[in-house]
Amino acid sequence: MSKSTTPVIELKGLKRRFGVGDAEQYALDGVDLTVKKGEFIAIMGPSGCGKTTLLNIIGLLDRATDGEYVLDGRNVEDFSSSRHAKVRAHQIGFVFQNFNLVERLNVIENVALPLTYSHVSHLKRLERASEMLKTFHLGEREYYMPWQLSGGQTQRVAIARALVNDPSIILADEPTGNLDSRSSHVIMEELSEVHKKGNTIIMVTHNPNLTTYASRVITMLDGRIDSDTKDIVVEEKKPAAKRPLGKATKTTKATKTKTTKKRATTKAKPKKKPAKKTTAKKKEANT
Ligand SMILES: Nc1ncnc2c1ncn2[C@@H]1O[C@H](COP(=O)(O)OP(=O)(O)OP(=O)(O)O)[C@@H](O)[C@H]1O
Ligand SMILES: [Mg+2]
């Protein structure tokens, strides 16, 4: 449908070094990655492997020490600082684990915040924010303060805020990290809807159950990409994401198995087969 094969993001040999001398450490140690328009990528990996660092660089919140980052066919190193700011404001939406709502502002003002620097009147900004909140079924919470919301509602406000500018790339760093399982699936349903509209999503998660919503699963290890499962059939997953929440767990498990198998193939670990044979032989011997 809205999917195309145009790469939106191309990373080549991307490195990010922190510290100097003895304290020198590569948070990213040569990442090669091509992201096509309309992909929904889940990034997993142990703590400290560089997931947040990678998202920050993709979102132009940080710069690589080495390597190349090409966004929409243009090397970001060639961007002026005003172009950097524009891309951040209009093309990229961020969702963080800890919600990051401004506590002093009510819900609608929080959602309207990214529009502050657009050439839109205050009234129009609030209208846009209000529309966005309605799509997240939060219309009745417009004038609540952040502390009056549940964790799930807070995160939905944060997603509404990330989307109010109509960004084409959504970066989410453990968007469900602070939520219970049910709220996590609600958030994932919302992200799935955003994905279906043709947006590109890159999401970091520690929860393998949530990778079922993604069309591609990447694992990182020590600042590099360790495995990349590209060809998950999105069409199979979409109906799964639509199912009532109660059924989500079952679907999740089914898809997860598929992903694990593919990853196992990539890593060439065919150890299970001999194990099965041994069991079978034992059974035979017992009978
Ligand atoms: N500003 C910084 N200064 C120094 N080191 C940093 C900085 N930011 C990150 N690092 C280091 O880079 C490595 C990767 O960090 P990063 O935050 O990307 O990990 P992560 O995969 O997101 O981990 P987690 O799952 O815990 O969020 C870590 O070892 C971390 O200590
Ligand atoms: Mg992180």
Write structural notes for this entry.
This protein has 287 residues and is an alpha/beta fold. It is built from 9 helices and 10 strands. Helices cover 39% and strands 22% of the residues. The strands form 2 sheets. The chain has a 6-stranded mixed sheet with strand order 6-7-8-3-9-10, sandwiched between helices. A 4-stranded antiparallel sheet has the order 2-1-4-5, covered by helices on one side. Helix 6 links the parallel strand 7 and strand 8. Helix 4 packs across helix 5 (151-163). The longest helix is centred in the last third of the chain and has 22 residues, at 245-266. The structure holds adenosine-5'-triphosphate and magnesium ion.
Cα-atom radius of gyration: 21 Å
Number of strands: 10
Share of residues in helices: 25-40%
Overall shape: it is globular
Put the structure in a nutshell:
The protein is of the alpha/beta class and 287 residues long. Helices cover 39% and strands 22% of the residues.
Features:
single chain, 287 residues, alpha/beta, Rossmann fold, 9 helices, 39% helix, globular, disordered C terminus, binds adenosine-5'-triphosphate, binds magnesium ion
Spell out the blueprint of helices and strands.
Blueprint lengths: L6 E12 L6 E12 L3 E5 L6 H8 L7 E6 L2 E2 L5 H10 L1 E4 L11 H6 L9 H14 L15 H13 L5 E5 L7 H16 L3 E5 L11 E6 L2 E6 L4 H9 L2 H22 L5 H15 L1
Parallel strand pairs: 3-8, 3-9, 6-7, 7-8
Antiparallel strand pairs: 1-2, 1-4, 4-5, 9-10
The structure holds adenosine-5'-triphosphate and magnesium ion.
Adenosine-5'-triphosphate binds next to α1.
